[in-house]
Design a protein that fits this description.
The chain is an alpha/beta fold. The strands form two sheets. The protein has a five-stranded mixed beta sheet. It has a two-stranded parallel ribbon with strand order 1-7.
Length: 133
C-alpha cells in the first residue's frame, strides 16, 4: 500500500508573525514608556500628595541626608552651586530641589539661605506620590 506524501507542518511558519508583533510591541513600550530617571544623588524622596509622578529635571539640585549638595550627578562645590544658581536665575520656572526625607531642617536652612543670597526667589521641592515607593 502506497501512502500519500506527508506535507510539512506550517505551525512554525504561523508563529513568525506573532513573534514579530510581540517584539515590535516590546520595543514600542520600551521607547514610549516614561521611566523615572535614576537619582543623581543617594536620596530617599519625600512622600507627598500629588496626582502625577514627578518629572525631575536633569539639572535639579539634590541634598542628601548628610547635607551634601549634588549637581549633575556629583557633589558640588560652593562655586559650582553659585554657577548653577546664576544659570537658574535666568530661567522662568522655579529651581527644582530634591531633599532627602531624613534631612533635618537645620541642614536645609543654610541651603535655602544660599539660594536666597543668589537671587533665587522660587524653589520647587520635588516629592513622590504617597503610593509610589
Amino acid at each position: 500500500m502506497k501512502l500519500p506524501p506527508q506535507t510539512p507542518s506550517r505551525a512554525a511558519d504561523d508563529l513568525v508573525p506573532l513573534i514579530n508583533v510581540v517584539f515590535l510591541l516590546l520595543i514600542f513600550f520600551l521607547l514610549a514608556g516614561t521611566l523615572m530617571p535614576a537619582p543623581a544623588a543617594p536620596v530617599r524622596y519625600i512622600e507627598g500628595a500629588g496626582e502625577a509622578a514627578p518629572q525631575i529635571p536633569a539639572d535639579a539640585v539634590y541634598v542628601d541626608r548628610a547635607g551634601v549638595i549634588y549637581l549633575k550627578g556629583g557633589p558640588a562645590s560652593p562655586e559650582a552651586l553659585t554657577a548653577r544658581l546664576a544659570e537658574a536665575r535666568g530661567k522662568a520656572g522655579p529651581l527644582p530641589l530634591v531633599l532627602d526625607r531624613a534631612l533635618a531642617m537645620e541642614t536645609v536652612q543654610p541651603v535655602l539661605a544660599r539660594l536666597s543670597e543668589a537671587g533665587i526667589t522660587r524653589v520647587e521641592i520635588v516629592t513622590l506620590r504617597g503610593s509610589a515607593r
